[in-house]
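Per reviewer request, we include the raw input and output of the structure prediction for the construct analysed in the revised manuscript.
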Amino acid sequence: MDTVAKMYEDPLPLSKYYDKRSRTLHLTVDFSAEQYEKKLRESTTLYVGNIAFYTRDFQLLALFSRCGKVRSLIMGVNRQKKVPCGFCFVEYTTREDAARAVEVLNRTTLDGRLIRVDWDIGFTEGRQYGRGKSGGQVRDEIKQELESEGKRRRRDSDDEKKSYKRSKNDKW
């Protein structure tokens, strides 16, 4: 009996990621990690991340349609600028097509970027917007902060090197 039951188990493991914030974006009541996992197991919606900002919806639709019939594709956009900000949601008509896309397209290179394809509990209005302070993705804001901090440190270090001038009295 166990072998028959195993035939009907979802062969693709779910992500360990648990999006606590999306709970509040859905019109449903707050749900537990177990309920969240149940929604993932029944979902036909995928989250696609690490998309180049210049990748367009028709490119994504062409790619994801290779795995099955796509019901909808929603581009993630910067909340303030209304321009793409590196993610989208793809909803398939069947769970099998969505599973094929996760298996085949996760970590595929698209426009020079390794895209991440993972299960999602389902799209609801409002989730297409980036969650960062500037309207984009939080990840991109953190990356920018770290890069500017690194540049500032290098600049300060260069300034320290330039400010020290060796005088004739310095002995080495």
